[in-house]
Amino acid sequence: MAADKQSSWSYTEGLPEEDDVLLRARDRSHELGVTPVSPGVGAALTVLAAGSKAQTAVEVGAGAGVSGVCLLRGLGRSAVLTTIDSDVDHLRTAREAYAEAGIPANRTRTISGRAADVLPRLTDAAYDLVFIDADKPNLPLYVDQAIRLLKPGGMLIVNDALDADRVAEPAVREASTNTLRQVGRTVREHEKLLSALLPTGSGLLLAVKRQA
Ligand SMILES: C[S@@+](CC[C@H](N)C(=O)[O-])C[C@H]1O[C@@H](n2cnc3c(N)ncnc32)[C@H](O)[C@@H]1O
Q1: Residue 204 belongs to what domain range?
Q2: Tell me, what's the pLDDT at 212?
Q3: Of 58, 97, 111, 151, which one's alpha carbon is 20 to 30 angstroms from that of 119?
């Protein structure tokens, strides 16, 4: 008999074999009360970063560095990850994870501050990849900013796009769930974007900015 969807999800999430660097970063995430990306999302980030051949990437929500290490492992050797977090302890812990992963310090730019203040200061059409994993109430603003920041052909990735399985459940009308439904619709209908929603982790929304 075929496995059900839940078994297939558990199977795929159990496939990535994370090394000590990622496992320690996960431990530190939990100590800080931060939810890191799932192993399936981490593996997807590495593959997407590698496939995109991005040289410049932005992350909103460094946490303790799990997603950053996954992105940096996919990005090219000269690529730079700009990562933003409002919590200085989280950023310090993320830097620890990057160092443990052997990432040279000049490949990361850590910016402490609220993303709503920091993103508008970044340059238009200067980034190949934007990954968003923080602060759901402001997600529509971050997505608007991401579209501005991306070069044509650049990729947007939004984590937790199914809001822990609540988006697909019409009876759930919580604010965060509605926000993610709205963001999903905006991205799907945006004339400049090609998009896909994957059920990996708690949902990974992907979009590529069309070439002009
Ligand atoms: C879900 S965690 C990120 C986990 C990380 N991406 C990982 O996989 O390891 C969300 C992070 O966003 C940060 N954050 C929350 N609100 C923020 C805001 N308004 N601007 C920037 N960072 C914010 C939190 O401090 C936290 O570290």
Answers
A1: 38-209
A2: 73
A3: 97
